[in-house]
Structures are given as structure tokens and as C-alpha cells.
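stage 2 :: seqdesign
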């Protein structure tokens, strides 16, 4: 009896020792794809941020959105009337200059927030920045469609702008899902469900 129990105890002990070793060294990935800080590094005070892995194209998208927001803000502040005339194909009056410049001031704050996150290594910070971009694009798209639908001001430049905003919303929301771990969790749950369904099918076969 005692000899039969020894292999089981030894295997469980080896498993616990391996788990403790992995936790001590910080080996493996978390659910969000980041590499955890090792206990040794936390004690010594070293920085393991260089071990962070980010999805392909994230940094390029961050820089692109930052440049676009900066350009739109500068144009709205300094040349509001030509910008409005080109985008909406209508004549802008003097009463619309102040709201357009206020819009430019608000977009300037968004641009600064985007620029600050381009060099960040924190996944939560980048995820929140991408979520704020997604909310901005979504609200902007909704306001444009509702306003222009009632006035019948749809034209080719407007349709092109709506398509670009919709594409930007999709890209930002996708990267947010990846950085927050929601896409990976969804794919993991889906693959588990498919494996269970396939196993049940083979069982009944």
C-alpha cells in the first residue's frame, strides 16, 4: 500500500515544485498575453517591461491616429471655414467658426492623450486609450449619420469620411480587445466549446 502511494505523491510534489519555480521566475504568459514579473525581478527592482509583447501593427496605428488627430485639431483651430467647406460641401458662416474651433480644442486633448500612450509599455494604459478612441469614433459616426440624414447632405466626401471613421472604429476596437485580453479569452472559450462539441460527436459516433 505504501509503495503504491509513493509515485502519486512524488508526481504531485514535482508538479507543485514546477509551479513554484515558474511563479518564481515569471515564466509563461498571462491571459492577456503579457509576461508576468518574476519574484526575483520584483525583489531586485529590475524592469521587465521589455518582455511585453504587443500585437503587430499596434504602434503604427497609435502613431497614425495621433498624427490624424493633431492635423484635424490644427486645421479646425486655424482654418475652420475652409475645413468645413471642403468636408461638408457647404458654405460655412461666421457663426460656425467658434463651435469648430472648440471642436479643434477638444480634439487637441484627444491627440495629446494618444501621443502619450504611443511610448507607454503598460497594457491597461494602452487599452484605455484604444477604448477612448473607439468611443470617440463611435459617437462621431452616430452624430454624423443622424445629423446628415435629417438634412440630406450626403455626398461623396461625406460617405468617404463615414467609411474612414467606421474603419477606424473597427481597428481601434479590435486592438482594444487584444490588449485587454477579451479577444484571446473569446477565442479560448470558442475553441473549448468546439473541442467539447467534437468530442461529444465522436463519443456518440
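stage 2 :: out
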Amino acid at each position: 500500500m505504501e509503495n503504491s502511494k509513493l509515485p502519486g505523491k512524488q508526481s504531485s510534489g514535482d508538479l507543485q515544485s514546477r509551479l513554484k519555480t515558474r511563479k518564481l521566475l515569471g515564466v509563461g504568459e498571462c491571459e492577456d498575453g503579457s509576461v508576468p514579473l518574476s519574484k526575483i525581478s520584483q525583489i531586485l527592482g529590475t524592469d521587465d517591461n521589455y518582455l511585453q509583447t504587443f500585437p503587430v501593427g499596434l504602434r503604427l496605428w497609435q502613431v497614425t491616429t495621433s498624427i490624424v488627430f493633431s492635423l484635424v485639431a490644427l486645421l479646425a483651430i486655424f482654418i475652420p471655414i475652409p475645413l468645413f467647406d471642403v468636408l461638408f460641401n457647404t458654405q460655412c458662416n461666421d457663426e460656425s467658426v467658434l463651435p469648430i474651433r472648440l471642436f479643434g480644442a477638444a480634439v487637441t486633448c484627444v491627440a495629446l492623450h494618444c501621443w502619450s500612450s504611443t511610448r507607454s509599455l503598460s497594457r491597461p494604459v494602452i487599452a484605455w486609450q484604444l477604448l477612448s478612441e473607439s468611443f470617440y469614433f463611435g459617437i462621431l459616426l452616430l452624430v454624423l449619420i443622424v445629423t446628415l440624414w435629417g438634412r440630406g447632405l450626403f455626398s461623396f466626401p461625406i460617405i468617404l469620411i463615414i467609411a474612414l471613421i467606421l474603419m477606424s472604429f473597427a481597428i481601434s476596437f479590435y486592438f482594444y480587445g487584444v490588449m485587454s485580453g477579451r479577444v484571446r479569452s473569446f477565442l479560448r472559450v470558442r475553441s473549448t466549446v468546439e473541442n467539447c462539441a467534437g468530442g461529444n460527436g465522436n463519443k456518440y459516433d
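stage 3 :: structure notes
- The chain has a mean pLDDT of 75.
- The helical segments are 2-25, 39-44, 58-78, 80-88, 97-117, 123-151, 156-180, 182-204.
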